[in-house]
Amino acid sequence: MSLEKQGVVIIMWIIYCLYAFHCMQRVYPRRVSTPIYYAAILLVYPATLFFEFQFDYPVQILISFVVVYILIFALLKTPLWGRLFFTAEYVLIYVFTQCVISSLNAIVTGASFYSIFYRDVASKPIPFFSSPIISIFMYAFVNHLLRKFNIFRMAHYKKLREILTTLLLIYGVILLCSTAIYQVDDNDIFIPIYHLTIALLLFSTYIWIFLYQYNNISYMESARDNNRLLHLIDTQKVHYKKNVDYIRSLRKVKHDYHWLLYELTENSENLNHEQLLARLQEQYDSIDANYHQYSNNLLIDSIISETSEVCEQHGITFDCSLNIPKDIDFSEDELCFNVATFLNMSIDKIMSSNTAEKVLRIHDQNSEYWYVMNFELSADDTELSDNPNVQPDFVLANEIMEAHGGYLQFDYDKDKQILRATGVTPKVLKNPTIQVS
C-alpha cells in the first residue's frame, strides 16, 4: 500500500473512531477533560493503525480490540460489561463491513479476499476506502437502536445488556476463528462467499436477538405494570372496606351517644357518674382503636394507611410517624407523588426478599432549615442491586426535589442489612434578611 493511500485510510478510520467515542460519551461520562479525551484518541489510535500494518489479519483485529478496550477504560466511566460491549461493537462493526466489502470485491473482481485487510488494494481502491464510511453508518444505525430503546439507562434492561454483550463477543470469536481456519488459496471463490454468508448471518442474528429480547422485556414490563395496577385495585378495595368499617363504628358510637344523652336527660337523678365515665372512656377507646394516624397530613396519611394494610397482609413489620411541616415549598400533588414513589419502591424491594423477618420504617427529622424524610428497609437478603436513580419514577421525583432545592440519596448499610432512601428538602424562610456590609 502506498503512503498516500495509507494516510487516507488512517484518516478515515480515525474519523470512525472519533465518531464512535463521541457516541460512547453520550451514554457514560468522561474521566478526563475534553482536550485530553480527544488528544488521547488522536495520538493512540493512529499509532495503533501503523502498528497493525505490520501484521496480517486476524492479528490486526485482536490488536484493535485490546487498544480500544484500554482507551474506553482510561477515558470513560463505564462498568465492565459496558467496556466489553462498546469494544466488541466497535471492532466487530469494523470487521463486519470489511468482511462484506472484501467478499463482494473478491466475488465481482476476482481479487484476493484478504486484499481489503491492508495487504494490497490493487488498482481498484474504491472498496477499500468505502469500508470506513460504511462502518460509520453501521455504527450510527446500531447506536440509534440502543438509544431509541434506552438500553443503557433503564435498570430493567440489565439482562438484555448482558445478552447483547455476550452475543457480540461470540460473534467476534466466530468471525476471527472462521477467518483464521479458512486461510487457504486467496483466489478460491469459496472463501469470499463463505465470509459474506457468515458475516451477514451473524449480523442479522444479532439484530433479530436484539429485537426479540427487547419485545420480551417490554412484554414483561407491561405484565408487571398490569400486576401493579391489579395490586393497587386490591389495595383500594381493602382501604374502602376499612373506611366502611370505620363509618359503621362511628354510627355505632353515634347510636351509643344518643343512648347516653337519653340517660343523662331522663335519669339524671339516679345516674351513676362512674358508670357514665367508664362508658364514655369505652367509646373513646373504640374510636381510637379503629383509626391510627401516621401523619399530620390527611392525604399522606391515607396513602400510608394503604401501605400499612399491604404490610399487614404480607407479614411485614411497619412503623411510621411523620410530622410534615407547612413551611416546605411543595404542592400537595408533588408531596403525594414523592411519598408514593418512595413507598412503591420500598414495597417492591421488600416484597422481593425471601427472608421471614422484614421491617419497613418511615420517619422524619425537622430542623430550622431542613426537612428530612427517611425510608428504611431491613431484611437479611436486602441489597442495592440496581441504581434507583435511573428508574423513571425516581428520575421525576429527583427532578421535583431538585426544583425546590432538595435532593434524593440512597445508601446501603451492609453490616445491618438496611437499605435507606433519604429525601432532603429546604424549608421556606419566613423572614429572610439580607445583610449589607
Tags for this model:
3 domains, 5 strands, disordered C terminus, Heat Shock Protein 90
How would you summarize this macromolecular structure in one to three sentences?
The chain is α+β, with helices and mostly antiparallel strands. It has helices spanning 3-25, 34-52, 59-75, 80-109, 126-148, 158-181, 190-266, 273-289, 298-313, 332-351, 392-403, and strands at 317-321, 359-366, 370-378, 407-413, 418-426.
What does this structure look like?
This protein has 437 residues and is an alpha+beta fold. It has 3 domains: 3-226, no CATH class; 233-289; 298-426, Histidine kinase-like ATPase, C-terminal domain (Heat Shock Protein 90, 2-Layer Sandwich), CATH 3.30.565.10. The protein contains 11 helices and 5 strands. It has helices spanning 3-25, 34-52, 59-75, 80-109, 126-148, 158-181, 190-266, 273-289, 298-313, 332-351, 392-403; strands at 317-321, 359-366, 370-378, 407-413, 418-426. Strand 4 (407-413) and strand 5 form a beta hairpin. Helix 9 packs parallel to helix 10. The chain is elongated, with a radius of gyration of 33 Å.
